[in-house]
User: Which sequence fits this backbone?
């Protein structure tokens, strides 16, 4: 586009300059030639004025002509007087002609009329010449032809000089125009370059929309694009709300069902000889409710993440999420001496993805850590290339290396006494992988478990 | 001990009421956010179980309004969505704990118990006053290991006094915390309950502060 604009403009500029140059040169040429003729005819008038023709003697000049070039041999400016009747050439001539005779084609001009010719000069150069035929009052029978000639170079030299100058000036003008056009195109297209940068920023998750203002020509494009982005986000959030409502609609009845089943099995005596089917039913309901809950939670989390992954323009600052969860955990797991601390989280560190997904991953890991910790949970985050690296350490009993992978399987619970669905870690791993991240369990420096979560970083 | 249950699903609300009453609490129920908000401001509760998805006014707004007006009773929120941001928002609005639906009733009872204990500044699940021990988990009171037989009202009076050991508790305050809203109240019956309790407990544990109320005094 830049090249197209540049070439298009330059072609027109060069054309315009060429036409102008040609017109100017031609105008000047005409002007110079006209001047030249005026000068020649002035000389001719002077020659006629100084010519004295006596009744009997040959014609003679009263005084030499005023222009000194007539006296300098081969100076390029000449005059000559021919007698028309006798065909005597060079009756009188300028000193500058020296021994050369101007040969002028004979035409039949009316007396006194000026006419011009181009002839060969003494040094081979072409001469411009004006002539006029006079019949002196004293000798009306004798027709004299007065000729004034000058080298064509008197005309050509200034024209040539001007043409050179003109070419130079116009060349400079074209070059200047080219630079101006290039700069203009660059400035004119700068909003597009900026737009490209902004789009890249949105893709990298540095902004949710293009916020900068653009010139009126570009702004509609930007607005349209923002509208698409907003619509994307809206679709995701609506899907999410919908899924949430569905979960709500399903889970409350599940709670009711599970509690009813619990009451049933409590009501039946332990050594139920009377109604074994009732106890079995209660157990069945409990199991199925637990399963349904697991499925709802799992697929809810997955579908939500699948909807969000790949949507450009997502950026979630890490620190507020960490601190929010820290407040939550500190309150919910409150027991004496228990502490949840954010050790390190550089300001401006952000996750390239959706806030709820980040909360889901961190919340599950943190909840686990708080359940298992003896008295302390530590959070720290740092950037590692294009990734975020978040560590969640506890000082609990830790996990044997052999089961570290197993706990990521769906429905595996390490301890039936600690409440939970056995789904948390499976969801965390699924989410992390959807975002092309990873979660692993290691041994924490404090002795317990360290959950290490790697996620894409928003720049 | 008196608990408010704000839950719009009638069957679940009934189950919650039954379970909490079985655990020795006086229970009021509110079916929507406006009612819950009003009851929380007018009555004195020792704990609130608050569903976030209430009709009319959502649970979070109800909770924020209570906290803004200075009501500090412990609140357990129930959420169905299970979104962490909702939990964080709940805690930031002033909730003390959350429970995700579907939940086990035993867990809810344990959480409510822990909240009431924490609010009273008690770290242990067992409240001890001399030879008298109240196990909040089982809801049983023993003296020297011997189980006391208490009516539900006697138990509530005892539990309230033991949660506020060393403080003077007025009769009105006791009335407010042992009866559900729709119960016919008579502050004279408090004297009857205290009289019966005194007979079952070691002597001089419950002291009468003239003109003010009662105080639980523990022997050093």
Assistant:
């Amino acid at each position: 586009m830049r090249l197209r604009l540049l070439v298009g403009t330059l072609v027109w500029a060069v054309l315009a300059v060429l036409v102008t140059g040609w017109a100017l040169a031609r105008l000047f040429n005409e002007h110079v030639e006209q001047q030249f003729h005026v000068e020649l005819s002035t000389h001719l008038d002077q020659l006629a004025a100084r010519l004295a023709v006596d009744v009997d003697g040959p014609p003679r000049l009263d005084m030499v002509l005023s222009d000194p070039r007539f006296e300098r041999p081969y100076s390029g400016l000449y005059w000559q007087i021919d007698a028309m009747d006798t065909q005597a050439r060079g009756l009188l001539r300028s000193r500058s002609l020296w021994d050369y005779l101007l040969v002028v084609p004979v035409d039949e001009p009316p007396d006194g009329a000026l006419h011009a010719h181009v002839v060969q000069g003494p040094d081979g150069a072409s001469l411009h010449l004006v002539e006029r035929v006079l019949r002196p009052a004293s000798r009306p029978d004798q027709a004299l032809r007065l000729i004034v000639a000058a080298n064509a170079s008197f005309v050509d030299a200034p024209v040539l000089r001007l043409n050179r100058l003109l070419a130079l000036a116009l060349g400079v003008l074209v070059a200047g125009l080219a630079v101006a056009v290039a700069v203009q195109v660059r400035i004119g297209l700068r909003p597009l370059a900026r737009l490209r940068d902004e789009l890249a920023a949105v893709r990298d998750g540095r902004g949710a929309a293009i916020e900068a203002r653009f010139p009126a020509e570009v702004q509609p494009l930007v607005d349209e694009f923002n509208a698409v982005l907003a619509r994307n986000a809206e679709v995701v959030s609506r899907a999410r709300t919908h899924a949430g409502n569905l979960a709500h609609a399903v889970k409350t009845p599940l709670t009711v069902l599970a509690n009813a089943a619990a009451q049933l099995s409590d009501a039946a005596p332990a050594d139920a000889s009377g109604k074994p089917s009732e106890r079995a039913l209660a157990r069945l309901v409990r199991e199925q409710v637990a399963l349904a809950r697991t499925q709802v939670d799992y697929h809810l989390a997955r579908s939500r993440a699948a909807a969000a992954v790949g949507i450009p323009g997502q950026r979630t600052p890490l620190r507020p999420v960490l601190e929010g969860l820290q407040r939550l955990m500190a309150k919910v797991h409150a027991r004496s001496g228990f502490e949840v601390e954010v050790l390190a989280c550089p300001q401006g560190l952000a996750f390239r993805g959706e806030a709820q997904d980040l909360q889901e991953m961190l919340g599950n890991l943190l909840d686990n850590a708080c359940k298992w910790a003896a008295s302390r949970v530590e959070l720290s985050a740092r950037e590692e290339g294009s990734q975020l690296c978040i560590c969640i350490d506890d000082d609990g009993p830790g996990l044997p290396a052999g089961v570290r992978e197993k706990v990521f399987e769906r429905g595996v619970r390490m301890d039936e006494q600690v409440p939970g669905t056995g789904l948390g870690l499976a969801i965390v791993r699924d989410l992390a992988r959807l975002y092309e991240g990873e979660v692993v369990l290691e041994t924490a420096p404090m002795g317990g478990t360290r959950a290490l979560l790697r996620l894409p970083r928003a720049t | 001990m008196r608990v408010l249950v704000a839950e719009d699903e009638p069957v679940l609300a009934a189950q919650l009421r039954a379970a909490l009453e079985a655990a020795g609490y006086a229970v009021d129920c509110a079916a929507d956010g406006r009612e819950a908000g009003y009851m929380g401001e007018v009555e004195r509760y020792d704990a609130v179980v608050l569903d976030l998805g209430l009709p009319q006014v959502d649970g979070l707004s109800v909770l924020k309004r209570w906290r803004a007006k200075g009501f500090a009773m412990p609140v357990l929120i129930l959420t169905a969505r299970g979104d962490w941001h909702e939990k964080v928002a709940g805690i930031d609005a002033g909730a003390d704990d959350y429970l995700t639906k579907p939940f086990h009733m035993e867990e809810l009872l344990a959480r409510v118990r822990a909240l009431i204990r924490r609010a009273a500044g008690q770290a242990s699940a067992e409240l001890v006053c001399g030879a008298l021990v109240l196990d909040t988990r089982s809801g049983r009171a023993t003296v020297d290991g011997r189980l006391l037989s208490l009516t539900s009202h006697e138990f509530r009076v005892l539990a309230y006094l033991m949660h506020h050991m060393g403080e003077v508790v007025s009769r009105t305050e006791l009335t407010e915390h042992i009866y559900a809203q729709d119960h016919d109240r008579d502050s004279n019956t408090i004297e009857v309950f205290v009289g019966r309790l005194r007979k079952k407990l070691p002597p001089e544990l419950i002291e009468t502060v003239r003109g003010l109320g009662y105080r639980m005094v523990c022997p050093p």
About this structure: The helical segments of chain A are 2-50, 153-203, 219-267, 276-308, 318-332, 355-372, 424-434.
